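Bug #77: duplicate submission created two jobs. Keeping one. Sequence:
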Amino acid sequence: MKRDSRLSGVLHVLLHMAELDGPVTSEVLARAMATNPVVIRRVMAGLRDQGYVRSEKGHGGGWTIACDLSKVTLRDIYDALGSPSLLAIGNRTEAPGCLIEQAVNAALDQAFADAEALLLARLGEVTLAALSAGFHERLVARGGRHDLEASHG
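Kept job's structure:
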């Protein structure tokens, strides 16, 4: 099963955007994420619908943060993405006829549910502001300044 990295990618983009004074285009964000601008626009549209970002069209337009980073959790962003699958493992079959496989599935289903509940709770405890603070600690330690395009050039 392929890993879904949308949450990580969106958080990455949002933190870059939070460092900028003005709008940033889908093209610039796409270059930073090594993806297509259409992918950025599709993901950002979902975040816009939830009020986390806004977009402006035309010359000088682009995407900007529209929320208070201290009030938005990783869980909020996860939910805005449509709650993608958290675990890349699962049962071999969902409705087995074998009693042994039914016992295995029951045990694994409970373990998966417990793991997902724990992960979702943790995502609900971490704000975008906390991620930003972690970035700033690293930036100060490196003695640098933020430059979206230079970071990913």
